[in-house]
Amino acid sequence: MQGWMGKILLIDLTNQKKNSYQLPPELYHEFLGGRGLGVRLFFYFMDQLKVPPLNPDNLLIFATGPLTATVVPTSGRMTLTTRSPLTGTIFDSNAGGFFGPALKGAGYDALLIRGRAEKLTRLQINEGECQFINCDDLKHRPTGDTWQYLKQKLPRYEHLYIGPAGENKVKFATVAVGKNRTLGRGGLGAVLGSKNLKALSITGSQEPEIADYDKTEQIKEKSLTYLQESSLTSSRLEDFGTAMLVNLSNEAGILPTKNFQETQFVQADNISGEQLTASMESSSGSCFNCPIACARKIATDEGEKSGPEYESIGLLGPNLAISDPDKITELNHICNELGLDTISTGSVIACLMELSEKGYSDHSFSFADHSGLENLLKKIAFRQGLGASLAEGSLEFAREMGHPELAMQVKKLDIPAFDPRGMKGQALGYITSNRGACHLRASMLNIEMLGLPERIDRFSEQGKASLLIQQQDLNAILDSLIVCKFTLFALAEGFYREMLEAVTGLEFAAAEFYLLGARIWNLEKIYNLAVGFRKKDDTLPARFKNEEGSGPLRGEVVVEEKMLADYYQLRGWDSEGFPLQETLEELKLTDFSPYIYGGEDNEC
């Protein structure tokens, strides 16, 4: 096989055993790798799909794609698929860095982990060798200390690991990948914590075989040319990181402010990417084979820290009414050290602040007051006092306080820093996303805000379902190849098909290529139906449907019923969101039809 290594590794932490498997070629051809392979393997190896996320039988699936570790630009990414402890959905998160190429270097397309170690453990994999090492000395160590320990101990290996939040099974705990990358959303770090798995280190010297090396090199050079010609991928992301979006979002009235009660922040310029670059000494960093170099590193008195991404700025800044860039940088750093998702952390604290200001809570936290927040983050990570309730996520906390409507989430995943009232296509994306509110499942930013390839009316609900589905299917493919989505700022969709064909030697007609994305999307939907998700879960919080925004969003709310009906029809689903038989036949998913009506109600 070209592109793929042709085998996977399954590790059982309970009995410290490992087995390797060769997969049928059609599994790769129909699901590619990364996200697609992850959800397919979840069905393949899980006896009971409704196993609770923190149960030892839940699977962790680390997967690469056919383009991983090749010369294709941005081909250093990997995914982690499991059942999310925050949402209860099938969930994958992906990250750059160098871990993906190392997994392929060890000879595997995917690594599956089940069971639970008796003591805190780190895994060490060198191609066919696997060691289970007790690491009680790393217990509750922050991510920075853990990284330094692992790099000193195993300098030739690539590493991923969890912080205290993961060990304490916080529902939105992250997984650190290398020094500066993160599997950020859905609480996947808590699944590692539930398995007593602190760290995973891997190395190897194998390389994937390329079907047509000359053609692959030509596509690489052409891709690099287009990436260099785009100001976004050639300079702006390197100069300012994703924080370049702060002023754009604020001017458009989509920057979340005070738990999305407002949509513009008066002091946004203080925390913009341009201002952060001008006022702080910073540098950029890149992942494996990546020319974009979007990672920001900021020099502080305590040493170099990761610069906050746009989403972290939005949720830890304006959404808490905090305008001090040093404070936002510090909160971002603490979240990273503890292993907390900055989006969900900012969201649950904003929920707490609104509850407090409206007299629904006895806790004295208010917007714009950042005193005590560093301590609160530590209480969340260690599940102490109020932190134990916040660690369950915004919806569970708001329910506990009697006001679930103040949790800004879909399927318990907190809404990122783009207000849906100002981007109706993105609103539908939040509503229908298989993993909950997510801008990465189908970012409508390009066409609704940036005009790439052309701008459409962001306030209109007309025709958004078809555009969204196209983006969802394309992003499912990118997450499975797996390459960075920033390349979409510069590359046409046909490039990705050419890359896949050159590396694997397989041919895909354009329609067949898009069917790959639809197949992956529908299999994720089938899993969620199997565990009990229904049409009632495809909805935004009432705030976005009943309360108009501010500034440019004055008078704007989301009317979701017609968009959702159009979406279901175009997806080939019935009016309740169940895939029709002809849809399953077209996507070669008829074997999964028994799962569709298997769920009574979701349990998470």
Please tell me about this protein's structure.
The chain is α+β, with helices and mostly antiparallel strands and 604 residues long. The protein has three domains: 7-203, Aldehyde ferredoxin oxidoreductase, N-terminal domain (Aldehyde Ferredoxin Oxidoreductase,  A, domain 1, 4-Layer Sandwich); 241-414, Aldehyde Ferredoxin Oxidoreductase Protein, subunit A, domain 2 (Orthogonal Bundle), CATH 1.10.569; 420-596, Aldehyde Ferredoxin Oxidoreductase Protein, subunit A, domain 3. Helix content is 40%, strand content 13%. The chain contains 25 helices and 17 strands. The protein has a six-stranded mixed beta sheet. A six-stranded mixed beta sheet has the order 8-7-12-9-10-11. α13 packs parallel to α16 and α17 (424-432) packs across α19. The longest helix is centred in the last third of the chain and has 21 residues, at 510-530.
